[in-house]
Structure to design on (133 residues):
């Protein structure tokens, strides 16, 4: 996404076909997918090991939810860039994710071109907020 080195990405979703779709989307955006998790617990472990630039977490996962994983990561890495993914849109869930430190929120059925644009925009805002203090 226009940075000199490839951005690294962590994908967490309990559905293999969703992980594959997200991996394909992120690779088409010239990023390097460094890890895939099928639950929140794996996501936290992979995050700590890989420290990816971008994380895409499903909200509803077994063992540990994406929201719980987000909270655990933000506690230790307050500058983490995590976008939450879900198939259920409700304002309460969106607000909770943002309150807990998510950098964005995307519905899984968002068309891929829109999804890419949303990720790019969220990354741009994130980078801008980091460079302004």
């Amino acid at each position: 996404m226009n940075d000199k080195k490839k951005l690294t990405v962590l994908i967490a979703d309990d559905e293999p076909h969703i992980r594959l779709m997200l991996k394909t989307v992120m690779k088409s955006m010239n990023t390097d997918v460094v890890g895939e998790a099928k639950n929140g617990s794996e996501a936290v472990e992979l995050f700590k090991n890989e420290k990816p630039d971008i994380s895409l977490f499903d909200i509803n996962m077994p063992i540990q939810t994406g929201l719980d994983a987000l909270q655990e990561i933000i506690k230790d890495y307050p500058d983490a860039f995590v976008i939450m993914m879900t198939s259920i849109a409700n304002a309460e869930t969106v607000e909770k994710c943002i309150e807990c430190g998510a950098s964005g929120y995307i519905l899984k059925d968002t068309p891929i071109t829109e999804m890419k644009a949303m990720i790019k925009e969220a990354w741009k805002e994130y980078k801008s907020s980091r460079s302004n203090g």
